[in-house]
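Re: that backbone. Tokens:
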């Protein structure tokens, strides 16, 4: 197995498990202890993880993520303004990917006026349950549900996204840097990246607290998306 492939596995397992041991990684990759130690050292130098005795854990400054309930009460007015901005880009007949998250969730009430004319695919369990009350055609991805964000993740969900063609994708983000948009979770990054690839237009919804920051996994280039913010 190539070093880059091992490192992708290490980061994926970290995002899923929260921490990993070298012993566990040996069994997963069939690599030697010394090889994995070098991989972990390289990733630590890149700021993508922190070495601990016998293994590794996510880098504290890049991978921290609040729960959906915690995010609900943060920057509420800013999120409402961003959602209103996003709704101005929605048209009758759109096929939309609606990402999990509190800011994208703020769009749902405004989508009611498009009742009967939209098709929406979402990775959010809570978004889907709210959308079906508005006579909107809704598809929810199947896969593993991440408790922290109530988002559906996993390879099955990515494969389902690849079957759709979206006119627009509205995605949340944890960090907006100079060149990339990023998030702490590799599985959620895979969902966002797949949705963006299948969309004619991709909108990133992010309040100003997300700017000039960096998270663990890049999922889109700034030059390839439209950033919607509150100022």
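Recovered sequence:
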């Amino acid at each position: 197995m190539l070093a880059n492939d091992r490192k992708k596995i290490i980061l994926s397992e970290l995002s899923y498990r929260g921490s990993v041991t070298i012993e566990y990684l040996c069994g997963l990759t069939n690599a030697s202890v010394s090889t994995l130690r070098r991989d972990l050292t390289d990733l630590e130098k890149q700021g993508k993880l922190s070495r601990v005795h016998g293994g590794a854990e996510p880098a504290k400054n890049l991978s921290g993520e609040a729960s959906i309930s915690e995010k609900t009460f943060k920057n509420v007015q800013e999120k409402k303004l961003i959602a209103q901005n996003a709704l101005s880009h929605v048209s009758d007949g759109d096929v939309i990917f609606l990402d999990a998250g509190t800011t994208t969730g703020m769009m749902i009430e405004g989508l009611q006026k498009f009742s009967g004319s939209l098709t929406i695919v979402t990775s959010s369990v809570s978004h889907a349950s709210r959308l079906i009350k508005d006579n909107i055609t809704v598809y929810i991805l199947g896969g593993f549900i991440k408790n922290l964000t109530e988002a559906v993740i996993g390879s099955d969900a990515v494969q389902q996204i690849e079957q759709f063609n979206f006119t627009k994708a509205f995605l949340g983000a944890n960090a907006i840097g100079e060149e990339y948009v990023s998030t702490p979770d590799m599985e959620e990054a895979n969902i966002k990246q797949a949705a963006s690839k299948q969309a004619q237009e991709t909108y990133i919804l992010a309040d100003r607290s997300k700017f000039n920051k960096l998270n663990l996994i890049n999922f889109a280039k700034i030059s390839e998306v439209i950033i919607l913010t509150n100022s």
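The CA atoms of residues 7 and 205 lie 29 Å apart. The chain is about 40% helix and 25% strand.
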